[in-house]
Amino acid sequence: MSWFRNLIQIPTVKSSIRGRSLLKNSSFLFTSLSHFTNDANQLKNPPPPTQYAGLGPTSSTQKPRMVVLGCGWAGSRLMKEIDTKLYDVVCVSPRNHMVFTPLLASTCVGTLEFRSVAEPVGRIQPAISTEPGSYFFLANCTDVDTDKHVVHCQTVTDGVDTMDPWKFKISYDKLVIALGAEASTFGIQGVKEHAIFLREVQHAQEIRRKLLLNLMLSDMPGIPEEEKSRLLHCVVVGGGPTGVEFSGELSDFIMKDVHQRYAHVENYIHVTLIEANEILSSFDDRLRHYATKQLIKSGVHLVRGVVKDVKPQKLILNDGTEVPYGLLVWSTGVGPAPLVKSLTLPKSPGGRIGIDEWLRVPSEQDLFAIGDCSGFLEGTGRPVLPALAQVAERQGKYLARLLNKIGEAGGGRANSAGGIDLGQPFVYRHLGQMATVGSYKALVDLRQGKVSSTFLLYQ
Amino acid sequence: MSWFRNLIQIPTVKSSIRGRSLLKNSSFLFTSLSHFTNDANQLKNPPPPTQYAGLGPTSSTQKPRMVVLGCGWAGSRLMKEIDTKLYDVVCVSPRNHMVFTPLLASTCVGTLEFRSVAEPVGRIQPAISTEPGSYFFLANCTDVDTDKHVVHCQTVTDGVDTMDPWKFKISYDKLVIALGAEASTFGIQGVKEHAIFLREVQHAQEIRRKLLLNLMLSDMPGIPEEEKSRLLHCVVVGGGPTGVEFSGELSDFIMKDVHQRYAHVENYIHVTLIEANEILSSFDDRLRHYATKQLIKSGVHLVRGVVKDVKPQKLILNDGTEVPYGLLVWSTGVGPAPLVKSLTLPKSPGGRIGIDEWLRVPSEQDLFAIGDCSGFLEGTGRPVLPALAQVAERQGKYLARLLNKIGEAGGGRANSAGGIDLGQPFVYRHLGQMATVGSYKALVDLRQGKVSSTFLLYQ
């Protein structure tokens, strides 16, 4: 018997109160409490001796179990489209929501609220909250055993003392790896400790908090000019779409909010964007020139440089230049996550999980990989697709349909999909790309392949 | 010259770009960067040798300076009503917003958003953002020197490595202490480490995060029943309005959101409210009975007990009973803040700063105290008023008018208010009290004094 059910017997309302306080009747309360005063009582049913519990293989009375690792663009779209009459869905992810990453930069300065860019997994696929065999587990996958069709997981407790990390296993019929990628630091010391990435909601929250804190601290009486300028120097490293969009948002924030609300320090706050090569290198030349012009016009300092070292309050460029900062945002691109690196699966160029044209890991049964963590194997003759939301999202959509088809054809169980016609392979068609540069201006690059080339500027 | 202004010379837009990328012209960029490659350059104007800078006494060309310590109900109402033509307002507080405390409990479970209960100081008194002599300083007051009319302060950096703590002094013409009170722990070990108070927005955020985390953790496969019940056991210590309202909100959350979204664990989650005496002891007897009935009806376990010790995952009552918990909220009332204790001013019964009928500290010039940190001196023959928002708010309003009157009569400067007629002393009239108990039900106690006694129940 759980200690808890003995804590207090709730009397029915009718029997309990007639113009007197129940609490006065303390003997009533302590009688029921006494059930669990003795520690030995609690140990009548001790917890199982192993810490490695889990969900075992599905039986023939259950639906086949699809395990999805990750809930970014790829995993979320997959879960949204999967037919939950055919599969139980189990999602394992260290966060319980999908982030609409293209709008994350706007939340750092209050243009958007955080909850506007985050959608709970349980709302993307309601079966996860309600169906008895479907679950969301707030955990990291620590290993994949493809022979036994099992994933090993460990809970994420984020430094809270609420529970020790808990390990468990989940047997799968189908496994979809959609773990995404990790921010690259290129092994530069101090980046993880002192810079903030811009990939999750908590990163945006941290940026917002630090920006406001620095604005307030810089206003303290007697702060030396140097220190004031340092605190209000926002440095962005990496001139891809994320870095450029964040710089644009910051300069909008400075021109509007700071001038209105922090008038005392408005002349001290500045934004510097450091990039080793070209900003927005994937965009057309003329769009890049336009973006450069716009950023400079809105007061962003563009610096070409390579960061060598990051200290708590300054960074050092390759040529020895020291750049003091108050806020440092790092957005230099992404690379494979540690789990992806550690898996002994065939890899695509760039170290991603190698997949075939049907997004399968061809050497394994029932294993698929989509999104930034996956790339076409060299043998397919296809190039590795860029780490973009539109690639991930369309792979998720394609794979959901493929798995629904497999399920309908009776191939949902582990090792049972042989011989089922998979239909057309996945084909990616690039629809173009966009980036905002602040001041309500954006770039739209609609080039498709290398032949036709169109672009627009919205003003 | 600040290093920062040398970072990059922004060319005018016209001269800079004509169809070419500025970034390609790296020599231009590095010329301007080279100004600060040498550390020695930065030290041409070293910061002042002392770390104790600040705002000196006001001159006759400036407005008199009113310093307000704190921005709760008392300080915020004062700042809102003060005439900024008569005074420059300087607010010193470790948080940059006022919290609408009666609605804080509702934010813990998502009934209200956090920003709905927080109002920035700069919006309460816009002069603080815009007037050259008015400021908000994110800092703690560390000492008050009433002889020199100076407050000593230190910045709050909240563990962020953005800046070392900075000390400064502010000279005042009028000083209003509105520091509020601190949550009482009665010296019980482990409360500060493991329990969450419910007095600030970040407390509500922590409660919300931990509640969701525990809901998700308890759903992990293989978690023992005991552990599941512990994680989902929400314990509230203290049966005053805060504890009761939070318990009510929690039980609403369980009955609605948990049953919808966390169906797997709905039978495990429970709320226990521990109180040493009566719940809602300041309310009328019949209202208390009604509240008790309602709470029990909504599934809240009421326990009479005294907490002796708090461990990371369980608390121990005086009789040795151990109560495992997943979430522990502490709301047992308030006591004087450390600074209030340390000030060598005459105190009221209960250790608050002693004030007279005009809310002055009578032994000092130009010193006032309002809200939870103040209490009438025994010599006034008046009782110390309860630590309620309505007391603080009305004291703030009264004092703003009194100080406006003094300012208009030419007594705004330090040591210049002698002989000015202060008018009527402050009179507090209790307007009654309210508390919600969940399920859209609330208590309203409209008794005034001890004679007439009316009460209402909303259903």
UniProtKB/TrEMBL annotation, chains A, B:
Topology in the lipid bilayer: Peripheral membrane protein
- Disordered: annotated span: 40-62
Domain FAD/NAD(P)-binding span(s) in chain numbering: 65-396
Query: From which residue to which does any coiled coil extend?
Result: none
Localization in the cell: Mitochondrion inner membrane; Peroxisome
* Reactions that this protein is recorded to catalyse: a ubiquinone + NADH + H(+) = a ubiquinol + NAD(+); a quinone + NADH + H(+) = a quinol + NAD(+)
Which GO molecular function entries does the Swiss-Prot or TrEMBL record give?
NADH dehydrogenase (quinone) (non-electrogenic) activity
Q: Which GO terms describe its cellular component?
A: mitochondrial inner membrane; peroxisome
- State the protein's name: NADH:ubiquinone reductase (non-electrogenic)
